[in-house]
Design brief:
Helices cover 10% and strands 43% of the residues. By secondary structure, the protein is mainly beta. A hairpin with a 2-residue loop joins strand 48 and strand 49.
Amino acid sequence: MMILIKLGNIDVLDAFRTYVYQAKVTGSNDNGLSVCANDESQEGTLDSKVQTGNAGGFGGSLLDGSVKNSSVTGLNKVKAKNYGGGSVGHMGKSGVVDLDEAGVGTGKLLNATAGVLDIFGSHSDNCSVIGIPVGFTISSESGKEPISGGFVGYADLGRMSNCNVENIKKVASDQIAGGFVGKTSFEYLADIDLGSSYLLDPILSIVNKLLDILYVGDLENVGLIDINLGSLLKLQVLAKGNALSVTLLGLTISVALDKDRGDGTSDLAKITIGDSYIEIPCSNIDGNHIADSEKENIKVGLIKSNRTKVDGCSITGIHDGYDVFGGKANDSHDGSEENGQAGGFIGYNNEGLIENNEMYLADTIRGTSNQIGPFSGTTSLNSSYDFNTKKNIEGKDNTYRIYRTRSDSLIDIIKNSSLYSKKDSDFDNWNVFKIRHYDKVQKYDDLKDAKLANETESETVDLNAYVSPAKAVLMDDTEVSDNEDGTTPVPSDTQDPCNEKVNITINKLWKDLSDKQKERPDTITVTLTRTYMKGSDEISEKVGDYTLSTNDVTDSKNTWQTIIKGLDAYTTLDDGSKAYYTYSVTESEVENYITSIEESDDGYTFTITNKDMPLLPDLGGKGTMLFVLVGIVGVLAVLLSYKKSKKANNIKE
């Protein structure tokens, strides 16, 4: 395998990954597919910590895996504590290659061929997510790191190619939210905790020479230094502030010294190699500042050839457009969280490569002030290479659209007589304007004070795509509702009829428009009884009373579930024969609800449905009382009219 890596032949490495091909996930006909993560924990060490509590229509977390030609259809909602996505909540990575075995040396580092190792992130190719007709929603809330995306929440070195999202209604998060991807990441080619001779020996040679100078403090008299790098014998050393730097084949290597940190540890050499960062514990030992005993603590980062990539993907909203809310924003207020990024396609792009992507029918993008944008909310890029710019990682053929009420004359978007876009097409009652990201509109602020105009600019109106530093509107700012929680219970476990013990599953379904009338109790009580036959007599006995509460919520607040475990399957009669129990459930009366109970075919699962019967349907606004009052007034008016008519007839007579 290592020979193949060195030759750049990486296709075979797919055999060492988790992979899923040609898979389909389909929601139910009545209410689609709903996925919820209720608990969370934190995994990893130091700066490589990730969260659980993730949810996705296809999978919660995909670590070092490949998903190809797969789909999710009939998606209703995904609710996560941390990373939530229409397809996958968390696309993550795992370490696989021993770099000493791979033979990746400094030569390969400098000519960048070591980038073949970037295949160890997760991949999703030719996959799709399609929502129910009214659209699907993604939300991440109450976790340590809430991140939401229409396709993927957190794409940690994820690779997405030719993937599509359709019928999306809303993406919301307590922190980061993106229409297609919540957050991307990059990673150094390798992180090494033990000394690797292929990688460290040439680097340590340079570092020791520079540390000689730094420890002496003679930064004014730097010049040429001799370094044992084969034909490269001398390097020019430059001083800038408290750091020294050399340039090796066009690659800048700089070293700064952090002395006397006061925490009982050795000094620290802080090293930058191109776009990479290295921290090496060191001490003031002339000629060999990096002791052998310190090498096991070395942390080395190499060229950032490993990054998230999204290529040839698209997202399409419902007819009224999809909304993206970050930082706890909603229709009525801006985001309030420090990390409240929101973008129509990507919330926070941390050096990911985003190319050839399309956005359709996006409406409102809202988050924390100065952290939102019509395509990307916030983009981070720290690079020492001139060619590695934000425009180069996001500016290749990424397109979003602005929709404005159809007009035969207002067909241009302009600002200060500069043409941003001409009308591209019609859609229903809209004029559609295509905006190429990082082309004429370089940043979100460029849309401020932009106008719709006719060709001669004699007629103009405000575009109003830029509403504030925290809110962009690409359609008409139509409020969309959250999807109602489902009422399909979580399936119970299959029982073995030969077991001496059985488990009884009790499902509670609330059919009350998600407690629209605020009448649902926090707890209900059920009574479990069982019967058996003794000769011709049926013997009944009470097993006990059990309480279900909001603590028993499953994947929807409308469904509760409890499992009573370890109950006897039978009793032994006096003659030694077995009499099997038949279990049944009753429920104490729940005020304002009608109760029905269904039993499964095997007799071990009971589903209790409580349905409220409101006087009139609640369509929002001020509730049913207004309709009741109007009805009463109408009846009184009819009676009064009848009396007046009768009186008039009497007068005529």
